[in-house]
Amino acid sequence: MRLKRINIDIMRFLVFTVIVYLVAAGSVNLFAIIYVVTFLVLTMQMWTSKSGWRNKIIMSVLYFIAMIVQLSFNEVIVYSGMQAGIFFELKKMFAVLIIMVPFFMVYLNYLYALQRRFFPVIRDASAVSYEMIKAAYSRVGTLKNTIIKSRETLSRDNLAEIVRDIPRHSYTKYLNKNTLTDEFFRECEASLSDEHLYLVISSTGSSGSEVISVFTQKEYNHVSISFDRDLKTILSYNGGGNVSPPGLNQEELKYFCRKEDASMLVYRLEAPKEKKRIVIDKIREINQNGSAYNLVGLVTRVSLRPNIMFCSQFVYSILKVAGLNYFMEKAASVKPTDFIERDYFRKLEFCYEIRFNQQ
């Protein structure tokens, strides 16, 4: 099982690397080769399958049409006009996305084959239960909401902000060092009498958080940890907000309200003084050795160095060091909402909610 997960992580990393390379260095000829090779491979796969002749011909024609549309899209839209700037990079992202069109056709053909196999005649369709119809309707509604949200979230401004921010990050070296001050650690030490740690789940409205929400389908996409109830010592892994280097940073509440409905949920977790001190010492160690925000790891779920993490990865790891983690998971696979949704033994106690921008 562990080997299978490692293989999945490697595949994610390879796919992400290919996508980044294509967006950064893809040319019209390279895309053309990919489209043509995809057409040839899928067509060969279809003609060596056990599908009927009619299905083979139809799918081959559809693959050919998809290839022509892909090639035309690249020639007429992507690589026409000025080939520089953010808008050109966004067009290349679409050129990467449409590589998946023929594979989507394969999936639709698979669904059609299943339908033909299990419901070969019309009267057998009555075997479809109300729950199946309800589930299908729910999926359609979810897909519709996802498309609408994606259209709003993946706006030109949001993507441009993310693209501008990427050069600040590193996947291989520590960028953030000694950012947390002595005053911060004095505040942490002063909180030892409060034998709790505070987990803060937030919906901030930052560009990165909004893009992540498209894939997670969660409203809350950032998690932080604090040593005191008033959040004077709140910190997490983040991009630094163009103020500090990406990595382990103390956070300020004013940076959590990037959208009208921004909000935070604050929970507390029992943490004896000695375990709380272990957490403080570990954070001090990370601060001294250096850190970086695991931007690539959000997709690949892989970290090349111990202190390169994203927010939920950090919070889970820091709890595990002190023996305070209350569910078992690979740190790089933990999502911010997991801390609430996977609290099966009710270790967390809700404290309060902060809603920003409310009149």
Task: Count helical runs.
Answer: 13
Termini distance?
A: 51 Å
The amount of beta strand, in percent, is 5-15%
Sheet/helix structural class: alpha+beta
Give the quaternary arrangement of the chains.
single chain
In round numbers, the mean pLDDT is: 80
Provide the gyration radius in Å: 24 Å
Got a strand count?
Answer: 8
In sequence order, what are the helices and strands, one letter per element?
Answer: HHHHHHHHEHEEEEHEHEHHE
Helix content: 40-55%
Describe the structure in brief.
The chain contains 13 helices and eight strands. By secondary structure, it is α+β, with helices and mostly antiparallel strands. α1 packs across α4 and α3 packs antiparallel against α5.
Structure in words:
There is one protein chain. The protein is α+β, with helices and mostly antiparallel strands and 359 residues long. 53% of the residues lie in helices and 11% in strands. The chain contains 13 helices and eight strands. It has a four-stranded antiparallel β-sheet. It has a two-stranded antiparallel ribbon with strand order 3-4. Strands 6-7 form a two-stranded parallel ribbon. Helix 1 (2-25) crosses helix 4, helix 3 (53-78) packs antiparallel against helix 4 and helix 6 runs antiparallel to helix 9 (207-216). The radius of gyration is 24 Å and the shape is elongated.
Keywords:
elongated; 359 residues; 13 helices; alpha+beta
Topology:
Elements: H1 2-25, H2 28-47, H3 53-78, H4 86-97, H5 101-118, H6 130-153, H7 156-165, H8 182-190, E1 196-203, H9 207-216, E2 222-226, E3 235-238, E4 247-250, E5 263-270, H10 273-289, E6 292-293, H11 297-300, E7 308-309, H12 311-321, H13 338-341, E8 348-355
Parallel strand pairs: 6-7
Antiparallel strand pairs: 1-2, 1-5, 3-4, 5-8
Helix pairs in contact: 1-4, 2-3, 3-4, 3-5, 6-9
